[in-house]
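Hi all, posting the design record for the shared folder.

TITLE: backbone redesign
STEP: 1 of 1
STRUCTURE INPUT:
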C-alpha cells in the first residue's frame, strides 16, 4: 500500500496538479493547446465546437474525464480568472457570479493570439516529445513558450502533501525584470522586486501594501491583502452611495452580495438602506445606498472587516523543476524560464541551420545544372530510366544523391532568366543565414540577445497597464480606527438598553432653569440611564449590575439622530436577560498604570488592574462575586492613588484614598467601602479631582455643588458625613459628579428630556444645605441621569 500510494502521489504531483516552471502549464492545459494547434484553431480562424476540442484531447492525449478537460478549457477562456486568457470563447463560458458555463456541445473556442506565442516554433525541434498514452502519437513534454506564462497567468493546484498558488502578474513588469536578468545576470533580487512590485489581478481592485508580495518574491511564500475598489457618489438630499467597481480576485460576486445582505441584516454593517447589483456589459457596479447620517469611512471599513470586500491571497511559488516540485523565488522562476528559452532558441537555431545548409546544398546543385543545362538535358534524355539518369548526373558533375534528385524534379520554368535570378538571390540569402546562425551559436550572449528582442516584441504587442492598484500608504496590519476621525461624541444608554452615538454639539447650551430639548423618542416605560462624553477611538467597558464586563469600540456604535432611540445594546453585546449596564468606562488603551475601581449598592468596593481586561472575550467575563440583592452601581478608571467618594441616596458621603483598597483578582468579592444606615444604598461613586466641586442631583431636579475641601478624609469603612439635606420635596439623590467652573452639564429625565447648561450657573453651597432647581419637571417625571462635559 505504501508503494502504491507513493506512485499515486507522484502521479498527482507530476501529471495533474503542479505546473512546469518552463511553460507554466499543467499537462491538461498543455494538451488542450497542442490539440488546438494541430487542429489549426488559431485566433484568425473560425471558432470550432468545444466538444470537438474536448474529444481530440481525450482521444489523443488525455485519458481522463471529459469534465476535467472542459473545465480547464473554460478557465483558460475566462478573463476574470486569467490575466492573459489563452483561449477565446464563443458562447456562455461562465461569469464572475459563479454561473456555470454552457455544455461543451453549445460553446465554441479557438486559441487567443498570445496562446499562439506559447506554441511558436514547436515544429522546429525546440522541445522534446514523448509517446501518448497508447503509443500512437507524440505529444510535447513542454511548450516552447515565448512568454513567461507561469508568472503572468499564475497557477493554483493541490497535490499530495503540497500545493501551489501563484498569482497573475503584469506582462510588462515581468518582461522588464526578465530583461534585467539578461542584461545583468548577477542582478540583486531586490532590484527585481523593485520592478515587479506586486501581482496584477485580472479583476483589478486594490493591493494593500507590498510587504506580503515582497516576502513571496524573496522566499516563495507570502500573503497579499486585496481590497475592493469603492467610489462614493452623492445622491439627492445630501445622502451618499457606495459604488463597488472592482472586487478582489477569485471572489464570487453573487455570493459576495449575499454575504453583504446577511451582514447588513445582522447589523454588523450599519447605515446601509439598500443593496443592489447594477452590473452590466459596461462593467461591475454593486450599489450600497447609505442612510442620511452615515459615516462613509466607518461603513467602508465594516465592509472590509465583515465581508470579502477585503480578503487575502496566500502566495506559494511552487512549480516543477526537472520533474521535482520546488518552492522558488521570483528570480529563480525567471532564471528557469530564461534557461528554457535559451535551450529552445539554441535548438531552433540548430534546426534552422541544418535546414539552411540542406537547402543551400540543393541550390548549389541546381546552380550547377543551370550552368550546364544543355548537357544535363541531353544526359537525361539519353538515359533509359530515373535511376540511370541520377547516377549519370552524380558521376558527370560530382553531385550528391539529393542534388541529383532535385535536378530531376526541377520544373522547366526554372530555366527562365527571372527564375535563375531568384535562385541566385536565394543562394546568397542562404549563405547569409548560415553565417548568421553559425555566429549566433558560437556565442551564448548573442542568443540571449535574441531572447531579449523577442521578449521586448511580446511586451510591445501584448503589454498593457496595471489593473490592480497598489496602495502604499495603508499598512497590511491596519486598524479600522485609523480611518475613523477622532472626535468627541455623546453616548446615551436608556434603561431598556438602547444605545446611540451623537456629535457633542448636538445639544446647544441653555440657561439654568430652562425646559430642555427633546433628546430622543422613547417608549412610555423607558428612560435614559447613562449619558457621557468620550472619543470615537476609545474602548467602552460595559460593566453590568450582575458583575460582568463587556468590551466595544465607540465607532462601532451607530451614529443616530437626536430623536432616534438608537440601537438595542443586545444587538452589539451578548447581554443576558435581566442583565443591565450599570457603568460604562471609556478606555484609550490597556496598561498596568490604571485600575478599575468599582462599588456596589451594598457599599462593597474593589480595585482590579486594567490589564486584566485587555483580552476580554466577546461574551464577557466575570469581574466580582456579588451577594444576593447586591449589584454594581458604578466603576471608575483610577491611577495609583485616587480619592474616592461614595454617595448614598439619603445624602451621606464618605471620602477615602483608593490605596486603602488593595489590587485584587478579577473575580474577588471586594471589601467594605462604608457603613450604611438602615434603608440606605450607595447610588454614586466619583473620584476626587483637585479644584473641583462635588455636584449632586436629586430625583426631583434639585442639585448643588460643594467644594471638596468641605469633606474631610475618612478611613474606608466609615459611616460618612452629610453631603446634602435630602427632603421629600427634593427627592433622594440619584447622581453625583465632579465638576469644574468651566464645565457644562447634561441632565436627563425619565421622559427623555435633556437640558445642557454651564456648571457655573449652579450656586455653591455648604454640605448640609439643600439644593436649587436645575430643571423643571412634569408631575410624573424625574431625573434619571447626569453627565458633565469638560
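Okay, here is what came back for every position:
SEQUENCE:
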Amino acid at each position: 500500500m505504501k508503494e502504491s500510494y507513493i506512485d499515486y502521489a507522484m502521479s498527482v504531483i507530476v501529471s495533474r496538479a503542479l505546473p512546469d516552471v518552463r511553460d507554466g502549464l499543467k499537462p491538461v492545459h498543455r494538451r488542450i493547446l497542442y490539440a488546438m494547434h494541430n487542429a489549426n484553431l488559431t485566433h484568425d480562424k473560425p471558432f470550432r465546437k468545444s466538444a470537438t476540442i474536448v474529444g481530440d484531447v481525450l482521444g489523443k492525449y488525455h485519458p481522463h474525464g471529459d469534465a476535467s478537460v472542459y473545465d480547464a478549457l473554460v478557465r483558460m477562456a475566462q478573463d476574470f480568472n486569467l490575466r492573459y486568457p489563452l483561449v477565446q470563447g464563443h458562447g456562455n463560458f461562465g461569469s464572475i457570479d459563479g454561473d456555470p458555463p454552457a455544455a461543451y456541445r453549445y460553446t465554441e473556442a479557438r486559441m487567443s493570439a498570445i496562446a499562439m506565442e506559447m506554441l511558436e516554433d514547436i515544429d522546429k525541434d525546440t522541445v522534446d516529445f514523448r509517446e501518448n498514452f497508447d503509443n500512437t502519437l507524440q505529444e510535447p513534454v513542454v511548450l516552447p513558450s515565448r512568454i513567461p506564462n507561469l508568472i503572468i497567468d499564475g497557477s493554483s493546484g493541490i497535490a499530495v502533501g503540497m500545493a501551489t498558488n501563484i498569482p497573475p502578474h503584469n506582462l510588462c513588469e515581468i518582461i522588464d525584470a526578465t530583461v534585467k536578468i539578461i542584461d545583468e545576470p548577477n542582478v540583486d533580487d531586490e532590484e527585481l522586486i523593485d520592478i515587479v512590485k506586486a501581482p496584477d489581478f485580472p479583476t483589478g481592485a486594490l493591493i494593500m501594501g507590498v510587504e506580503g508580495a515582497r516576502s513571496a518574491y524573496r522566499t516563495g511564500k507570502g500573503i497579499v491583502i486585496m481590497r475592493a475598489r469603492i467610489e462614493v457618489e452623492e445622491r439627492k438630499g445630501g445622502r451618499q452611495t457606495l459604488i463597488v467597481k472592482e472586487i478582489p480576485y477569485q471572489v464570487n460576486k453573487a455570493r459576495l452580495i449575499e454575504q453583504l445582505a446577511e451582514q447588513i441584516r445582522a447589523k454588523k454593517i450599519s447605515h446601509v438602506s439598500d443593496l443592489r447589483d447594477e452590473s452590466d456589459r459596461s462593467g461591475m457596479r454593486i450599489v450600497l445606498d447609505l442612510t442620511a447620517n452615515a459615516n462613509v469611512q466607518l461603513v467602508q471599513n465594516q465592509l472590509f472587516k465583515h465581508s470579502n470586500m477585503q480578503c487575502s491571497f496566500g502566495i506559494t511559488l511552487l512549480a516543477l523543476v526537472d520533474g521535482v516540485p520546488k518552492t522558488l523565488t521570483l528570480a529563480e522562476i525567471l532564471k528557469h524560464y530564461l534557461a528554457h528559452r535559451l535551450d529552445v532558441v539554441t535548438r531552433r537555431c540548430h534546426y534552422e541551420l541544418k535546414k539552411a545548409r540542406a537547402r543551400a546544398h540543393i541550390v548549389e546543385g541546381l546552380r550547377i545544372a543551370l550552368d550546364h543545362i544543355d548537357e544535363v538535358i541531353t544526359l537525361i534524355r539519353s538515359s533509359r530510366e530515373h535511376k540511370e539518369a541520377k547516377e549519370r548526373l552524380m558521376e558527370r558533375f560530382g553531385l550528391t544523391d539529393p542534388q541529383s534528385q532535385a535536378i530531376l524534379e526541377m520544373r522547366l520554368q526554372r530555366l527562365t532568366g527571372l527564375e535563375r535570378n531568384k535562385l541566385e538571390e536565394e543562394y546568397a540569402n542562404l549563405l547569409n543565414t548560415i553565417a548568421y546562425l553559425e555566429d549566433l551559436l558560437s556565442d551564448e550572449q548573442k542568443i540571449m540577445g535574441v531572447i531579449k528582442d523577442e521578449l521586448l516584441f511580446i511586451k510591445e504587442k501584448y503589454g498593457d497597464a496595471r489593473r490592480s492598484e497598489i496602495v502604499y500608504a495603508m499598512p497590511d496590519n491596519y486598524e479600522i480606527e485609523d480611518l475613523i476621525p477622532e472626535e468627541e461624541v455623546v453616548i446615551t444608554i436608556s434603561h431598556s438598553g438602547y444605545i446611540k452615538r451623537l456629535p457633542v454639539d448636538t445639544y446647544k447650551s441653555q440657561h439654568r432653569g430652562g425646559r430642555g430639548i427633546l433628546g430622543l423618542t422613547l417608549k412610555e416605560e423607558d428612560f435614559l440611564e447613562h449619558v457621557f462624553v468620550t472619543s470615537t477611538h476609545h474602548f467602552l467597558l460595559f460593566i453590568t449590575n450582575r458583575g460582568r464586563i463587556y468590551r466595544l469600540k465607540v465607532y462601532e456604535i451607530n451614529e443616530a439622530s437626536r430623536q432616534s432611540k438608537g440601537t438595542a445594546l443586545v444587538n452589539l453585546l451578548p447581554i443576558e436577560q435581566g442583565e443591565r449596564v450599570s457603568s460604562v468606562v471609556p478606555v484609550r488603551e490597556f496598561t498596568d498604570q490604571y485600575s478599575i475601581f468599582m462599588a456596589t449598592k451594598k457599599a462593597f468596593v474593589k480595585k482590579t488592574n486594567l490589564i486584566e481586561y485587555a483580552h476580554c472575550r466577546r461574551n464577557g467575563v466575570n469581574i466580582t462575586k456579588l451577594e444576593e440583592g447586591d449589584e454594581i452601581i458604578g466603576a471608575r478608571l483610577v491611577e495609583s492613588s485616587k480619592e474616592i467618594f461614595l454617595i448614598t441616596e439619603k445624602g451621606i458621603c464618605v471620602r477615602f484614598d483608593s490605596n486603602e483598597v488593595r489590587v485584587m483578582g478579577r473575580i474577588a468579592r471586594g471589601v467594605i467601602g462604608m457603613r450604611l444606615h438602615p434603608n440606605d444604598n450607595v447610588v454614586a461613586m466619583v473620584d476626587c479631582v483637585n479644584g473641583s466641586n462635588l455636584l449632586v442631583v436629586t430625583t426631583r431636579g434639585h442639585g448643588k455643588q460643594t467644594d471638596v475641601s468641605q469633606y474631610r478624609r475618612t478611613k474606608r469603612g466609615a459611616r460618612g458625613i452629610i453631603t446634602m439635606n435630602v427632603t421629600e420635596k427634593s427627592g433622594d439623590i440619584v447622581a453625583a459628579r465632579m465638576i469644574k467652573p468651566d464645565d457644562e452639564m447634561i441632565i436627563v429625565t425619565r421622559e427623555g428630556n435633556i437640558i445642557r447648561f454651564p456648571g457655573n450657573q449652579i450656586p455653591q453651597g455648604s454640605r448640609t444645605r439643600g439644593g436649587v432647581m436645575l430643571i423643571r419637571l412634569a408631575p410624573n417625571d424625574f431625573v434619571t441621569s447626569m453627565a458633565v462635559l469638560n
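COMMENT: The CA atoms of residues 742 and 759 lie 7 Å apart.
Let me know if anyone wants the other runs.
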